[in-house]
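Hello, quick one for you while I still have it in my head. I'm working through a protein record and want to make sense of it properly. Would you mind checking whether the tokens look sensible for this chain? I owe you a coffee for this, so here goes:
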Amino acid sequence: MAARLTQQGSLDKAGGSAYITALVNGPSSARSWQINADRVQNAAMLRRTKVAAIHIENLASDADPDAVEHIADEAQAEIFAATTRRPLLPPASPLGDVMEDTLDWIEATGGRNASLPGVPTGFTDLDSLTGGLHPGQLIVIAARPAMGKSTLALDFVRSASIKNSLPSAVFSLEADRNEIGMRILSAEARVALHHMRSGTMTDEDWTRLARRMPDVCAAPVYIQDGSYSNVHDLRAHCRYLQARAGVRLIVVDAVHLLTYGTRPLGSRYEEISEIARCLKLLAQELRLPIVAISTLNRSPEQRVERKPMINDLRDSGALEDNADVVILLHREDAYEKDSPRAGEADFIVAKHRHGPTATITVAFQGHYSRFVDMAQP
């Protein structure tokens, strides 16, 4: 090793031949090897951070003030890449290695007792169709107002974090953290949401609440309400949470309330296009599924058949193109109170990039702020 370092002109930088000899002759326990490996990793991280800092300084030195958001985003990405222990971009894999991993994945997925390859949604038929929510996917939940879009997204969060202990994050521009907390408690404890809101909790309600509080409080759920409004701020928050808390699922509520930056970006269609593209790229960068909530336009209400279609998405082209899965939420009793399907809801999987589409019927328990499989009480 000393000869190699001498040939490279790096022996002095490495500490000299005496230091190299001491390393070779020193203790070689597993613990000492781990300590030295950590030191090497930390030194590499420090070196990458220094390089990133120089690059950021060069970017900012002669920058146009109008480009500050682009520069800030690039700076965040540089620091994120430098300070994580994995490279931002994985190396290319030979096809033979890919095939070996692929066959292992197929075999494991086909096992009788195999767990889902993705984050469980908590809905049996939906998980059977999709295999859960997969890393790198952009999943869009869309419906007309008051159909239960946020409720469904929180059902995904409850399944991931409370039932399966997978860290998740909720970014909400529609509801504050107390409202989100009440919805989660209502669904978990089966306490009517309006009892919480109106202050009319019964003794039985408090008992149910106390029974579920330990599990709910221990769940790794992170809630961010309203401290961001554009996609650049959102991206920075997501990178931070992924690096610090290891989040496995992110919910964005809602896309139509986001802006691309602090200034308008052409038409609203163009802005939604950029937001959708950024969310998809962020899901791939962080290697986790992002669930984005969107609103449908008024077209379903103007048809005799009010079931939504994928082209009913507001500013639909961009979201539809970038999404891997689009779930359109429909409840007949939202339009007809005397509907024979009262209490039922349809998850219309209108787009599924890697599998079949389908319509899945579940039960809607609005008083508990949740959807459940039809067989559940």
In short: The first strand starts at residue 138 and ends at 143.
